[in-house]
Amino acid sequence: MTTSLKQALKTHFGFDSFKSKLQEDVVKAVVRGDRDVFVCMPTGAGKSLCYQLPAVLAEGITLVISPLIALIRDQVDHLRDHNIPACSINSKLPAVERRLILADLGSSSPKLKLLYITPEMVASPSFQPCLTDLCSRSLLSHLAVDEAHCVSQWGHDFRPDYLKLGELRARLPGVPCLALTATAPKNVQEDIIQSLKLRLPLSFITPVFRNNLHYDVIFRELLPNPYVHLHAFIKKALMLDSGSNGQGCGIVYCRTREGCETVAYQLTKLGILSKAYHAGLKAGDRTEVQNEWMQGRVLVIVATISFGMGVDKANVRFVAHWNLAKSLTSYYQESGRAGRDGLPSSCRTYYSAKDKAQINFFICQDVNRRQRKRGSAKESDKAAITDFEAMVSFCEREGCRHATISKFFGDKTPNCAGACDFCSNPKVVQAQLARAAALRTNTLAAPSNTPKGPFGFQADLYEGGKKGYGFERYDEGGEGNEDDGTKRKKEFSDLFKKQMKLRKVKHDNYCVSCCVDADCPLREASSQKIPKLTVKAREHCLQLLQESLYGHYDSLSLAVDIEHEVFKNSKSSNLYKAAVLKKVTANFYVCLQQQRASYLKRKRIGAGQRGSSNPFITAKDLLKSSMLDTESNKEKESGRFFNDSSGDMKAKRERLKETNMDTSSAASSSIKARAKAVSASLDNPTKGGKAMSKKQQKLAEAAKSSRNISQYFTKKQTTEKIQEDADMPEELDATFSHTPSEIAQENISREQHSPASVEAVESSQDVIQAESKTAVIVIPDDNKEKKTAEILNTSEQDTTSITEALHPVNVPPKPVMLKEAADIVVRYLDPFYKQGKFATKELFKSFARYLSHLLAEGRSRGKSQVKAEAKALIKKFFSSVQRCESEADWKHLKRPHSRKTTEKNK
Ligand SMILES: Nc1ncnc2c1ncn2[C@@H]1O[C@H](COP(=O)(O)OP(=O)(O)OP(=O)(O)O)[C@@H](O)[C@H]1O
Ligand SMILES: [Zn+2]
């Protein structure tokens, strides 16, 4: 038998041997046909062949049940490529084809070997006559149920129509049944056997452990810049630094469509071409993205869970979950798409407390909804909750990740041998957990008297809801359903905010204990050369450096080089930080000079101005105080300013004034007096004798908005704003440092929004010399608190003058948002598309998307400016590109100012 099977394997499928002994054993059992068979083998193990080869060899037809039409299509195409007669009857089949198939099935000896149908079709009345006819003529050789876990209510992909397969089974006496799944814990296995009425099945179950997969968990909220972190991980997983191509590809899973778009954009911006895939895209675009990824033209696909089922790609070198999976079963299945070729691959989860709370909310909502509908609780309702809890505990508990998965699936503890972060370096995991715990202590403390739901979860905590988990099944159901989605987001946001009010959250305890992450991009990351300098602080500095190189082609590598140079040459933590800041401000200054140069071209600075003709503070000036103070009283000052960050504004102003007195020697006395008035007015606008004029008030407002420069350095993270605007409770947002490039942009947009800005700009020459203030850059270090690393001697004038230089107009333009930018871009780009200047529509769209993001970045420019920039960019693009053939064509296209900065930096 073995020889003839091997021959058939070669003849029909072109394989020289079975993929494994298990595959061979299953095929033999199915070919014998005397028993039902249950197969639980990991994804990529070659389960399909277990029924396809027997189907070819058997007389008659094998009926295959598969949950998705897309999956069926792939399988049928694959079989037809091997000249194996296979087809599918489904709702989308054109009538002509359907008639042809039914004609073949009705003939005395059908040519068809495999007939694929969905469980819905099995139940459909139109299919019943055909089924009865085949059965009565004994033309059905096997019944194969793929993705059999869908039959179980304990399973993560339960589909009610799968339950009807039990009835089908009863109608096909004597037809052996084969049930296959990749992921089934013990209770799901039992459910499958029972629901499909398998009779004493032969079970082939492989342990879930796959030693080529390396699992790790990273707590996203502890990262200064999660995108940079993800980027570093991908670079390593795909060996992009080694300079060799063809090292495979990867998947990043996100929970929301917006998340996919944002992550894809960020990764592309950091230099790794990535594309989003979700149900919000048109079917054609989805296929195009999938094809590009399959063919290796796009390295990273950033997808919702709608992507992956049935995707047969061997060299997936990593699967990263940007959001927590909804269950450990799903996670095992999704992460298992890595390393199907057996080569080492990485599976990473970016854990976040926000995700945990949100998913918990959606699950509870769904359970409540089901219970309300049914009028009673059911034991199986618990499945979603316990499976999610298993996922959470996979991330939050100390211990081998593989062992956790194996235990969950009822297997013995495997020999991990360093194939997870805990086994390879438990200290790193423990340190991370400790940091997360410290963060959490100050965040969530659920009210202890909150009543528990039927299974222990706090149903009332988030109240009930109308819809499911927040995961449409495979992200299918959401098309054209945005309103509902938005409503739910809002619903969640409101509830969450309400609940969070009960739980006073504070993020002032940013623990910075030292630990080196596997993907840490720093050179000599574990070196203890500089006492008290933590890896966290170094990573933070790296991020500042990278941001200061905004627009540079490979800003990360360059930043890594600079940081390392500074690290090598610094003797103390403070000197290191001061040196980094010097570099940062120098880079930043270059950027400002570029902006100023372009402004000066348009507006000549007139003679007779008061104050300096150079409204820019130099890097030297910026650093002057920090360099002087570095070793002496900085610690004292920095602690003080740090403590201010969320505290009493008045006290802060007093201290700012003190510092100012020491440092603003350049300010003229009259301006000082004016500054004093402004300062006093901040404490009490009506105090201090005369009521302020309207103009003075506005001036004061402007000063107020620019005075607390520290907020630009310690600001809530905004990178994922698009994704989380509506649904992220503020209280859970970790505090991250702000970047220099953002500072300028923030200043601009603040000024644009401020009603005072018109006059502030008009009076800028006065304000320029008005007050000197202290800016604070917060750098996490090892004292378990944010501390100021440097106190820079800068002044309000700087922010004002920067603003003015960047926006030399009297009427502040309304900042352009992404949608508006996209409208502008599409309008200008459309004629080029119509002239056939884009090889494909997808390219046109991608380019439009790229440009829109580019133009909307920072939200700092008015519509007319964005229009002009859009025109200029498009013109520039087509001046060097005849016809756009690939994404590489616009790789180097940058906004004008960033390009200049780049050139200057080179
Ligand atoms: N004997 C074999 N020799 C070599 N390759 C094989 C063999 N059998 C199957 N394969 C290949 O292995 C890959 C995975 O097979 P298949 O898609 O059937 O896996 P699976 O277990 O069904 O995975 P999933 O759970 O993701 O559907 C396919 O590319 C298939 O062609
Ligand atoms: Zn392990």
Automatic annotation (TrEMBL):
One of its GO terms (molecular function) is four-way junction helicase activity. Residues 664-681 have a biased composition (Low complexity). Signal peptide: none annotated. Residues 233-385 form the Helicase C-terminal domain. It comes from the Eukaryota. It catalyses: Couples ATP hydrolysis with the unwinding of duplex DNA by translocating in the 3'-5' direction; ATP + H2O = ADP + phosphate + H(+). The keyword Cytoplasm does not apply. It is found in: Nucleus, Nucleoplasm. One of its GO terms (biological process) is DNA replication. Residues 647-660 have a biased composition (Basic and acidic residues). Pfam families: DEAD (PF00270), Helicase_C (PF00271), RecQ5 (PF06959), RecQ_Zn_bind (PF16124), SRI (PF08236). Its cofactor is Zn(2+). GO terms for cellular component: chromosome; cytoplasm; nucleoplasm. Its EC number is 5.6.2.4. Residues 628-706 are annotated as: Disordered. Keywords: ATP-binding, Cell cycle, Cell division, DNA damage, DNA repair, DNA replication, DNA-binding, Helicase, Hydrolase, Isomerase, Metal-binding, Nucleotide-binding, Nucleus, Phosphoprotein, Zinc. Residues 28-202 form the Helicase ATP-binding domain. PANTHER family: ATP-DEPENDENT DNA HELICASE Q5 (PTHR13710:SF152), DNA HELICASE RECQ FAMILY MEMBER (PTHR13710). Belongs to the helicase family. RecQ subfamily. This is ATP-dependent DNA helicase. It comes from Amphiprion ocellaris.
